Amino acid sequence: MEEEREKMRQDIRDKYNIKKKEEIVEAAPQEEPNPLMRKKKTPEELAAEAEQEELDDFTKLKNQIETQVNELKTQIEGKCVMQ
């Protein structure tokens, strides 16, 4: 009985050029998720991201240069005497 119904459904689909719902669902494009509705990150995930950023070569180099500049700045300020 179900086979007969499915055959009738298929005849109607063929007649009106309708696709099955399953095919429509698969063909539907995935929309980008709304950034306001995204899942909040846990503190562990935030810490892991911060650690990844620190491990980045460019960031390491930047931090190293900043510390050297600050050291030179303090040395120069120590040698300069304001009168």
UniProtKB/TrEMBL annotation:
Residues 48-75 form a coiled coil. GO terms for molecular function: syntaxin binding. Keywords: Coiled coil, Exocytosis, Neurotransmitter transport, Transport. GO terms for cellular component: SNARE complex; terminal bouton. One of its GO terms (biological process) is synaptic vesicle exocytosis. Positively regulates a late step in synaptic vesicle exocytosis. Belongs to the complexin/synaphin family. This is Uncharacterized protein, isoform H. It comes from Drosophila mojavensis.
